[in-house]
Amino acid sequence: MAHITASVEYGIHSLLWLATAGGAPVSCRDLAQLQGLSPSFLAKIFAKLEKAGIVGATEGVRGGYRLAREPKDISFLDVVDAIEGAKPLFNCEEIRGRCALFDGNAPAWATDGVCSVHAVMLRAEKAMRSELARQSLVELVQAVNRKAPSDFPGAVQAWVGERIDGRIKKPGAAPVSCATEGDIP
């Protein structure tokens, strides 16, 4: 978990929309439009989420993405690791052994055991990963529902339904999963 990029934020927001969509599949293109994002950028995120088993895709005019697990079973850590990979927060370069005073021959007291700087970073990463694992998508949905007007989830579901209906009415409408939308170069 090196640096947590905006991809994680976009991924979590997209999962929030899927959780609010009432189980209807939502196309990657629609999720991108809903959030003002590039469909091709979001497609790359969804490929990682699908590979991690967080979302599942269905093809066709009525297709799109759905959550593959219940929101309570999707942690923020699941999303971070799916999108960013399980990289360490800090890579210790062991500079403690390169002190000019050691003249290229670092004593054991300086290099034995875990580097003190690295130890602090390991504790910080453990705390962050623990907090991300503790926080689930369902808690995010509940927080948003407490803030939003009571008719907001219905408005999201109506918007998604209108998008699906619009595709169905178009003759020869294209499939909607990200991998087949032509968004990925």
Strand-helix topology:
Layout: H1 6-20, H2 28-35, H3 39-51, E1 55-58, E2 64-67, H4 76-84, H5 108-111, H6 116-134, H7 137-147, H8 152-169
Antiparallel strand pairs: 1-2
Please describe what this structure looks like.
With 185 residues, the chain is mostly helical. It has one domain (6-180): Orthogonal Bundle (Arc Repressor Mutant, subunit A), CATH 1.10.10.10. 52% of the residues lie in helices and 4% in strands. The protein is built from eight helices and two strands. The chain has helices at residues 6-20, 28-35, 39-51, 76-84, 108-111, 116-134, 137-147, 152-169; strands at 55-58, 64-67. A two-stranded antiparallel ribbon has the order 1-2. Strand 1 (55-58) and strand 2 (64-67) form a beta hairpin. The two termini are 26 Å apart. Residues 180-185 have low confidence and may be disordered.
Briefly characterize the structure:
With about 180 residues, this protein is mainly alpha-helical.
- Total strand segments: 2
Cα end-to-end separation: 26 Å
Q: In sequence order, what are the helices and strands, one letter per element? A: HHHEEHHHHH
Helix content: 40-55%
Assign the CATH architecture: Orthogonal Bundle
The order of strands across the largest sheet is 1-2
For the record, the count of structural domains works out to: 1
Assign the CATH topology: Arc Repressor Mutant, subunit A
Please give the CATH class. Mainly Alpha
Q: Uncertain spans, ≥5 residues at pLDDT below 50?
A: 180-185
Mean of residue pLDDT values: 88
Helical run tally: 8
3D shape: elongated
Radius of gyration: 22 Å
CATH level-4 homologous superfamily: Winged helix-like DNA-binding domain superfamily/Winged helix DNA-binding domain
